[in-house]
């Protein structure tokens, strides 16, 4: 896949070329959105919005790292989604019994593949990390997601977040320290990985 | 440890963002400063944990459709010409309707407001309202030739009324009567007919209809062609 050629074609209105780029980047985009938003459905919506917005504003892409440019679009879509959530908080759909009492664990919420205990165990690390990520201020969360989870370098993070390089440096450092503090609270729950890291030193 | 600046340096070093000389200096400091070393380790662990997060698979494809991005099918080159012609014809037709409406009402108003001749003077209403004042005007100049004072002097003894010459001057003179008649003769001219002929309106309607149909057909065929691609 020649990315430059595809981008050029997409800039001239070739939707098929753009869709090729979408297929290539959709996992990256969705993963970024899911880590920033902490919710799969919201992340899927934000990802779709990000791609639509990216296609519409593709003319503004003037070369450089397409990945960083796309990450900026995703970040913006996530911020929009969070703002929308603040304005219109949703009420969870809780089923009721015949007597009008709420059902705590409705049948349709259950995963047919895993028992809740298994699921909990499997997702333990992920849940703990996501919990700590959610506790970070949005700017710190975005910086650390882009730098540590998506592996962007500082200059790309700067492009994606529209902030100077020095700010990126500072945000990543602060975010890491806060994350470490937060994860200490889960040391007993998680840590095969976490403890092992400590023992390795 | 010298505050947050050190932490930033540690974090940047973890990401390979420090120059080799700076990195070497930091490493030597790490061996001497246990607090700094602990902070470095915390950051390294945090980074390591984040990198261990499993990558999530996209729940569906996010490929876009033409509808999603509002793309329109490519239209033939003549489309803008047809569009312009149809729009222009529509505007002209609207103007023609307004002009004809105004012209019609003006004619009706002129006919209604034409002066009705004095019955006593003319000996009855003439058939043509516009010809009568003209006739009256041609008769009027004779009266204007006579000086007003003379006419008054002639009339005074007959009426037996003694009036001063100043008073006589103030009375309506024959000259005034004549000029009034003249203005009446000039005033109610036949109004010009500005109405647009029906044939032009019919032509405009034809252009609008043909243009509209052509535009609709071009739109539909472009969409059909696009869907089949």
Structure characterization notes:
The complex is a heterodimer of chains A (201) and B (229). With 201 residues, chain A is an all-alpha fold. Chain A folds into 2 domains: 3-87, Rna Polymerase Sigma Factor, Chain: A; 114-200, Orthogonal Bundle (Arc Repressor Mutant, subunit A), CATH 1.10.10. Chain A has 10 helices and no strands. Chain A has helices at residues 3-11, 15-37, 40-56, 66-87, 116-122, 124-135, 138-149, 154-161, 165-184, 192-200. In chain A, α4 crosses α8 (154-161) and α8 crosses α9 (165-184). Chain A is globular, with a radius of gyration of 20 Å. Chain B folds into 3 domains: 4-52, no CATH class; 66-114 and 193-229; 118-187, no CATH class. The model of chain B is unreliable at 119-146 and 160-166 (pLDDT under 50). The longest helix of chain B is centred in the middle third of the chain and has 35 residues, at 79-113. Chain B has helices at residues 4-14, 20-32, 34-52, 66-69, 79-113, 119-122, 131-139, 141-145, 148-159, 165-170, 174-186, 198-228. Chain B is mainly α and 229 residues long. At the A-B interface, α2, α3, α6, α7 and α9 of A face α1, α3 and α4 of B.
């Amino acid at each position: 896949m020649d990315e430059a050629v595809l981008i050029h074609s997409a800039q001239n209105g070739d939707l098929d070329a753009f869709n090729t780029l979408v297929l290539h980047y959709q996992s990256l985009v969705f993963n970024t959105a899911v880590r920033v938003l902490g919710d799969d459905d919201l992340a899927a919506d934000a990802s779709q919005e990000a791609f639509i917005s990216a296609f519409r504003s593709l003319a503004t892409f003037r070369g450089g790292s397409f990945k960083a440019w796309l990450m900026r679009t995703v970040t913006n879509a996530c911020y929009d989604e969070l703002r929308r959530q603040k304005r219109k908080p949703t009420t969870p759909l809780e089923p009721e019994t015949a007597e009008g009492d709420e059902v705590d664990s409705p049948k349709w919420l259950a995963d047919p593949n895993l028992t809740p205990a298994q699921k909990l165990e499997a997702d333990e690390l992920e849940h703990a990390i996501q919990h700590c990520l959610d506790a970070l201020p949005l700017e710190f969360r975005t910086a650390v997601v882009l730098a540590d989870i998506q592996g962007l370098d500082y200059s790309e993070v700067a492009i994606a977040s529209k902030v100077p390089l020095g700010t990126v440096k500072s945000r990543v450092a602060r975010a890491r320290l806060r994350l470490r503090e937060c994860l200490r609270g889960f040391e007993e729950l998680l840590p095969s990985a976490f403890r092992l890291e400590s023992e390795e030193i | 440890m010298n505050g947050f600046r050190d932490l930033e340096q540690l974090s940047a070093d973890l990401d390979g963002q420090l120059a080799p000389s700076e990195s070497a200096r930091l490493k030597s400091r790490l061996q001497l400063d246990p607090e700094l070393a602990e902070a470095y380790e915390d950051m390294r662990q945090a980074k390591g944990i984040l990198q261990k997060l499993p990558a999530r698979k996209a729940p569906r494809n996010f490929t876009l459709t033409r509808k999603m991005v509002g793309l329109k099918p490519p239209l033939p080159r003549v489309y803008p010409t047809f569009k312009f012609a149809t729009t222009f014809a529509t505007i002209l037709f609207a103007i023609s309707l307004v002009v004809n409406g105004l012209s019609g009402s003006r004619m009706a108003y002129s006919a209604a407001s034409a002066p009705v001749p004095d019955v006593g003077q003319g000996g009855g209403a003439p058939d043509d309202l516009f010809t009568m004042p003209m006739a009256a005007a041609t008769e009027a100049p004779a009266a204007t030739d006579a000086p007003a004072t003379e006419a008054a002097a002639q009339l005074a003894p007959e009426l037996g009324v003694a009036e001063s010459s100043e008073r006589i001057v103030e009375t309506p003179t024959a000259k005034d009567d004549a000029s009034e008649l003249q203005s009446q003769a000039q005033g109610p001219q036949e109004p010009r007919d500005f109405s647009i002929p029906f044939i032009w309106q019919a032509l405009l309607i034809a252009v609008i209809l043909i243009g509209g149909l052509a535009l609709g057909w071009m739109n539909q065929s472009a969409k059909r062609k696009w869907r089949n691609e």
